[in-house]
Specification:
The protein is α+β, with helices and mostly antiparallel strands. The chain has 16 helices and 16 strands. α5 packs antiparallel against α8. The longest helix has 43 residues. The protein is globular, with a radius of gyration of 30 Å. The relative contact order is 0.06.
Length: 488
C-alpha cells in the first residue's frame, strides 16, 4: 500500500477509534450480519499500524489482536468482499496461530469499511471454526451492512465535529461581545479626529492646505483600517443554522437530506440527494418536493398529506416508489420532520430519504423471506422504531423482529405466543380493534392500518401504528404479517 495513502488511512483510523461504539445501532449490525449470514462470530474492526481493534463484537469477548496475525489486513486491500472458504488452503495463513492454534479459525469473510474519501478503516467481518461459504444473497447483505456501519460512523463523527465547531463559534461570539466596548472606542477615536479636523475648517480656524489634507488622509486611513479589522474579526459570527446544515449533511452521500420551507419547497440539500435523485441543486432548489413523486402519488396528494401529517404530529414516515430525474424509479424510505420556531410555529421541514431498492427487489423476487426483509429494513431505517411480525397459521406460531421486541420491552430471547400476544394491547378499543382486524384478515383477506395503544412488559403505555396483511395459498389463509411502528 502506498505510504502516503497508508499515512492518511492511519490518521483517519486514529480519529474514529475515539468514537463511542456502544450504541444499539452498531450492535444490531453485527448481530444481523451473524444471523443473516449464519456465522457464529461477527465483528466491526478498526486496523491501525499495530493492532486490529474489535470495536463491536458478536460471538467473542476479545477486544484487540496484533495486526500481523489479523485477517482484516488483507480485507482492507480490496474494494469488495474478501472470502476465505478454508484458511488451511490459503498460503497467507499457513503459519497463522489463529488457524493452527485456538480458536482454530477456518473461515473468514470481510467487507471493508470505506469512507467517502476512499480510505478504509477496517472491516465488518465474519468467522467460523469450520470451512464455509456465503451465498450470493449473504454476500450482498454483508456489503449493505458494511456500508450502513460506515455511514453510522461518519454520521457520529460529523456530529462530534459539528459540536466542536459550534462551541468554538459560540466561544468566539462571547469574546466578540466582551470586546464590543473596545471596538466602539476604536471607532470613536479616529472618527473624533476626523470630525475635529472638519470643524476646524468650518469654523475658519484652519485653512485647507497641504498639511491639513495630509492629516485628514491619515485620519481617514486609520478609520478605514479600524473598520476593516473589526469587520474581518466579526466574520466568524456566521449563521449557526447554515453551519449546522452544511457541516452536518453536505458530505453525506448514502442518504438524501433536504431542507424544505413550510410549503414543501426545497431550500437546500446535500450530495446524497443529488446522487440518489439525479438532479443538480440548481434544478431543484425553489421547486416543490412533489417532483420526486409518481404521477399517481401527486394525483392522490400524497406529498401534501405527508407535509400536513408532519406539521400535525411532528414527523411523518413513508415508503414507496420515487422518481429520479431520468424517470427511473427507486424504493424510498422517507422521514419528514417539522422544524419549529421559538413560538412552536412550523417554519419548515427536514426530509430524509434512503434508497432501499436493492432490498425491496430482493424481497419481491423471493430471494429473502419477509421477516428477513423487515429485519434489514429495520436496521437501515434506524431513525424509525419499526419492527416486523408474522403469524404462521399452518403451525400456529408467531415471530417478532428485534425491534418489535424492543417496543414491547421484552428480552431478545423472548418467544411470543399467538394466544397471549393480544394481551399486550390495552384493554378496550385497542384490543377489540386488533382482534377484529386479524379475524377479518384471515376470513376475508382484508388488511388493516390502525393506531392503537399497548402496555409493554414493563408497564409503559405506548402508542403504536399496526399495519397488517394476509397471504392465501390454495384458497386458504396460511399467514398474517405486517409491521409495527412506535409513534409515541
Amino acid at each position: 500500500m502506498d505510504n502516503v495513502i497508508e499515512s492518511k488511512r492511519l490518521a483517519e483510523v486514529n480519529k474514529f477509534l475515539k468514537l463511542d461504539f456502544n450504541s444499539a445501532e452498531f450492535q444490531d449490525i453485527v448481530e444481523l450480519a451473524a444471523q443473516l449470514c449464519d456465522k457464529p462470530v461477527a465483528l466491526i474492526t478498526l486496523l491501525d499500524d499495530e493492532s486490529n481493534w474489535f470495536k463491536v463484537k458478536f460471538g467473542t469477548d476479545i477486544d484487540v489482536m496484533p495486526k500481523e496475525t489479523s485477517f482484516c489486513q488483507y480485507g482492507i486491500q480490496q474494494n469488495d468482499l474478501l472470502i476465505i472458504a478454508d484458511t488451511k488452503k490459503d498460503v497467507r495463513f499457513v503459519h497463522n496461530p489463529l488457524v493452527n492454534e485456538a480458536p482454530h479459525l477456518r473461515f473468514y469473510a470481510g467487507a471493508p469499511l470505506t469512507l467517502n474519501n476512499g480510505l478504509k478503516l477496517g472491516t465488518l467481518c465474519l468467522f467460523d471454526q469450520k470451512p464455509n461459504t456465503l451465498t450470493t444473497l449473504q454476500q450482498k447483505t454483508l456489503t449493505i451492512l458494511a456500508r450502513q456501519a460506515t455511514f453510522l460512523m461518519e454520521l457520529q463523527m460529523s456530529r462530534i465535529q459539528l459540536q466542536q465547531q459550534i462551541q468554538e463559534i459560540e466561544a468566539k461570539n462571547d469574546s466578540l461581545n466582551k470586546i464590543a466596548l473596545l471596538q466602539s472606542h476604536q471607532i470613536r477615536q479616529p472618527l473624533t479626529t476626523l470630525m475635529g479636523l472638519v470643524n476646524l475648517v468650518k469654523e475658519d480656524s484652519e485653512s485647507v492646505d497641504e498639511n491639513w489634507l495630509q492629516m485628514f488622509e491619515r485620519a481617514t486611513n486609520n478609520f478605514d483600517k479600524t473598520i476593516y479589522d473589526i469587520v474581518a474579526e466579526s466574520i466568524g459570527s456566521k449563521d449557526l443554522r447554515a453551519i449546522r446544515f452544511n457541516k452536518m449533511v453536505e458530505e453525506i452521500e448514502d442518504c438524501a437530506i433536504l431542507l424544505l420551507d413550510e410549503n414543501g419547497t426545497v431550500e437546500n440539500w446535500n450530495k446524497g440527494a443529488a446522487k440518489i435523485k439525479g438532479y443538480a441543486s440548481s434544478e431543484v432548489i425553489g421547486k416543490n418536493f412533489s417532483i420526486f413523486y409518481t404521477a399517481e402519488d401527486v394525483k392522490n396528494k400524497r406529498p401534501n398529506k405527508l407535509i400536513k401529517k408532519a406539521e400535525k404530529l411532528g414527523v411523518a414516515r413513508d415508503e414507496g416508489w420515487r422518481l429520479r430525474k431520468d424517470g427511473s424509479k427507486f424504493w424510498g424510505s422517507v422521514v419528514i420532520t417539522a422544524i419549529h420556531n421559538d413560538h412552536h410555529k412550523v417554519i419548515g421541514f427536514t426530509k430524509l430519504t434512503r434508497d432501499l431498492t436493492n432490498i425491496k427487489e430482493a424481497e419481491e423476487e423471493k430471494l429473502i423471506s419477509a421477516d428477513m426483509y423487515h429485519l434489514m429494513a429495520e436496521q437501515i431505517s434506524k431513525f424509525i422504531r419499526v419492527g416486523g411480525w408474522e403469524i404462521n397459521l399452518e403451525n400456529n406460531t408467531l415471530s417478532w423482529t428485534s425491534m418489535t421486541k424492543k417496543i414491547h420491552e421484552v428480552p431478545q430471547e423472548y418467544v411470543p405466543d399467538v394466544n397471549t400476544a393480544l394481551n399486550f394491547y390495552k384493554e378496550g378499543s385497542s384490543r377489540i380493534n386488533i382482534s377484529e382486524a386479524i379475524k377479518q384478515a384471515i376470513e376475508t383477506g382484508k388488511g388493516w392500518d390502525l393506531e392503537l395503544e399497548i402496555i409493554t412488559e414493563k408497564g409503559k403505555e405506548v402508542k403504536v401504528r399496526a399495519i397488517g396483511k394476509s397471504n392465501y395459498k390454495d384458497g386458504n389463509c396460511n399467514r398474517v404479517y405486517g409491521i409495527f411502528l412506535e409513534i409515541s
